[in-house]
Amino acid sequence: VSAADEVTVIRAGKLVDVVTGTVLKDQTIVITGERITSVGPSASAQVPAGAKVIDLSAQTVLPGLIDAHTHLTADPYLSGYNALGVSDTRAALYGVRTARKTLEAGFTTVRNVGAGGFGDVALRDAINEGDFIGPRMRTAGYAIGIKGGHCDENLLPPDVNFTGRGVADGPWEARAKVREMAKYGADVIKICASGGVLSKGDEPGAQQYTLEEMQAIVSEAHKLGRKVAAHAHGTSAIHDAIVAGVDSIEHASLIDDAGIKLAKEHGTYLVMDIYDDDFILQEGAKAGMLPESIEKEKKVGQLQRDNFRKAFQGGAKMAFGTDAGVYPHGDNAKQFYYMVKYGMTSMQAIQAATINAADLLGWKDRVGSISVGKYADIIAVKGNAADDATELTKVSFVMKGGAVIRQ
Ligand code: ARG
């Protein structure tokens, strides 16, 4: 964290203006303490005497990236039964390392949508209090879902009779669970509207929460000032979640034309994790993912990528989110390749990971663009990221809140 009155100046050769979708040349950014206090052409910039100057005149400068779907406490190589012996406390400590990795990769903000033991809340608070470095975090606590569903723990036999702490059945139990998450530090409510790939004994295409349950969850969450992110691969789960009023659909793998239309009408963001199919199919078995999970992935992976193109071209709002933790933390930017391959320009993919994600997180006032008043969360790459978003896998400079993290 930099001192409140410390002034830093960044000379940007190219600056990606995500608000207008343009690239500006030879810009000067002035940072006072944690915030951006001016940005404009270098030719007319007023540089305060004694300011520290960072020369990025040979680089492309962008706002810090935002990943709207992470699990910082999850280790991809401890999947399936390998994960059962890991305590929530151990998982949270693992998050100390993944938080740093994520930030160093240029992701200055994440929305963490599910963690055991409120490990994400602890990480968020420890980062904010300066115990170690990591991205700004929006946290969910436990993901909420039906008994036996994607958000339950289904690996143990009935003798053990274990139920995950996020399980809530029926509208009132679900409301109570939202209240519990909010009480213990959730900024956002995560629910499981359909089955999943990595869970045992369910199907991605099958709906889990009913419309009635999701209406209760959304009204409770919104009343408490929290947005709702709904895990939903399945077509009917996507429809009902949108109609119930959730703020984002996660995965959205089997979205159809009616779902795309609904998302547009309701202004619902889609957060489609179209990279991690690669990791699941290449490394999943080694990492401990169940054979049934690999089979499920083979059914939804390619459809999700095709539907990403359809949904984007159909006009649905998109925010960048990767499900980091399913694949190794720090590789988040690998998803840009697929976003461009399946229909976005590089600039649109960058906007999904900055201004759009900031909007979804309810943080458009503080992050997501290089604008006066926002936090000085700034990254740079040597290549021309606006023409080739895959350059973002090679971030050379990271600043968070005016403090240089990597140079
Ligand atoms: N957490 C998600 C699930 O288990 C991961 C899905 C990954 N696959 C994909 N094609 N995006 O359902």
Describe this structure in words.
Helix 4 packs parallel to helix 5 (about 235-245) and helix 5 runs parallel beside helix 6 (about 255-265). The protein folds into two domains: about 5-65 and about 370-405, Urease, subunit C, domain 1; about 65-360, Alpha-Beta Barrel (TIM Barrel). It has a seven-stranded mixed β-sheet with strand order 3-2-1-4-13-14-15, with no helix packed on it. It has a five-stranded parallel β-sheet with strand order 8-9-10-11-12, with helices on both faces. A three-stranded parallel β-sheet has the order 5-6-7. The model has no long low-confidence stretch (mean pLDDT about 95). The protein has helices at about 90-105, 120-130, 170-185, 210-225, 235-245, 255-265, 275-285, 290-315, 335-340, 345-360, and strands at about 5-15, 20-30, 35-40, 50-65, 65-70, 105-110, 135-140, 190, 225-230, 250, 270, 315-320, 380, 395-400, 405. Helix 5 links the parallel strand 9 (about 225-230) and strand 10 (about 250). The longest helix has 23 residues, at about 290-315. It contains ten helices and 15 strands. Helices cover about 30% and strands about 20% of the residues. It has about 400 residues and is of the alpha/beta class. The structure holds arginine. The site of arginine (ARG) has 16 residues, from helix 7 and helix 8.
